[in-house]
Amino acid sequence: MKSQAKTAANMNSAIYDLFLHTRQSITPRDLRDFTYADPGYHEYLREWLLVYETKEVPADIDAEPISMAFYENISSPKFEQLERFLNYRRFITSSVLMLIEQGAFDDDKTRASQLTAAIVSDAGSADREYLKLLRPAINSAREVLKAENTEVTYPYFTFASIFLAQMTSDWKAADAAASQLIQDDKDVRENDDLNWKVCNAQLLFGLDQGNGPHWKKLTKQLCGSIENPDTQFIIDAVRVPKKR
After folding, report:
1. Rounded to an integer, what is the distance from CA 181 to the centroid of its chain?
2. Of 96, 132, 112, whose CA–CA distance to 21 is shortest?
3. Nearest CA to 134 among 114, 157, 113, 110?
4. 158-189 burial, b for 16+ CB within 10 Å, e for fewer?
5. N or C of the chain: less Cβ packing under 10 Å?
6. Three-state DSSP class for 232?
7. What is this structure's pTM?
């Protein structure tokens, strides 16, 4: 039996509002069309239809329906209606933010680097209301993970905030997030409860080993800042080295 999810009254409003917005952008048919088609398809679909119908995400939802949502090849002919798929995946990622708010996030479901990269990638063509709701939801998720003091990659949510602020031309917020990211990275490396998980010295990407495939193209979209040198410092630090 699934454990009980938090009710709407007990949910973080920023995250729950985002979840409801993404739910309104899809239909059960979208879930049927875009749920990953492998032998577990019917079980994955059952999970997502339940989330859709109840407007709740069980804290112990099976990991596979979430992780498989990130493996679709969007160059496939099936994605001629790409925006429908992106609406579907925005629903999935907002559901994961719901799990974070419940203290039920773990790497079996999806890595923070993978989740935040998908959120940033999928936000480019999103409606303004989605972007308006997404930014505070991302900040809330970061705060929850930082407070839990168990997730070494919570700075990825700060990194995502830089992209999202730049997308909406909120340069002041982007600069603030850039400085916050440098501080977050430092805090993790100085935290004895977390720093044993750190992989190497590279800013942000050194916190785990699951970042490369998800962020390679996205990092090219970051713009430097005249007001804050921290932004350019981050761009230089996370740039993927060329192979020799």
Report:
1. 16
2. 132
3. 157
4. bbbbbbbbbbeeebebbbbbbbbbbebbeebe
5. C
6. helix
7. 0.89
